[in-house]
Amino acid sequence: MLVELAIGDAYGAQFEFADPELVEQHNHLQYIAVRDDAISPGSYTDDTQQTIAIAELLVEGTEWTPENIAGKLVEVYHRDPRKGYSRRVKIALNASANGAEFLKNIDPNSDTSGAAMRACPLGIIHDLPELVERVTIQAKVSHNTPLGIQASLATALATHYCIYEIGELSDLGEFIVSQVPGDWNVAYDEFVGQKGWMSVRAALTVLSKHDNLADMLKACIAFTGDVDTVATIALGAASNTARIEKNLPDCLYQNLESSNYGLEYLQALNERWLELKVVPNL
Ligand SMILES: [Mg+2]
Fold this sequence. Notes:
15 helices, 282 residues
């Protein structure tokens, strides 16, 4: 999951808020520099970095407290500073050396997509009340609003639905609506702005309409707007289910960044994360 999610993020980052004409011209599943101000092709952004933070917290078995979660967000940023964070979060990260300082420095009154874009790894929690509790605690660290928390819950539940093969992807929206308030079962077909629910609704729409990762990734980008986040959430969920064909072109794997926290790191962390999957006793 972590590799496909990072591919979605890295590919999408070139198209984030890009001109729709550029999107249409270049959305052909290769990393290319579409805009001068984007991160270098093949590099991922804040979506994947925050997802790494949550996955590390889970595999390390860290006590699930706001301070520990904030501390991990600070740690992953300072060891490998990245583009893509909102101004609000970036200022707080730069001003903080640990979790307690981040909690003091961040204004968590936000309903943008930060808490949703990092929530995929939480889908591996088998017990739904525990999943809801843990997602909510981590969302409140930076997005302590009903919409911010609900978007994060919907993301984690989408991944959960795929990991545990709960049903057909066409029924995913209904499942999420049964757990979290929101129009999660209504198709989204507009420009994706910065609100978390927009990225999640777009990702859920893509998940319900396609049966392979390549078509999904192109469809995520075609919305235009905050499409790295749409692709992060959609591929994060979809890569976990056998119902979806894994047909992303090899070049997207081979040219994903090979930095200290690049492809090999993501593969290794993903192995450890998968060990958290609950296999029912037969
Ligand atoms: Mg991003």
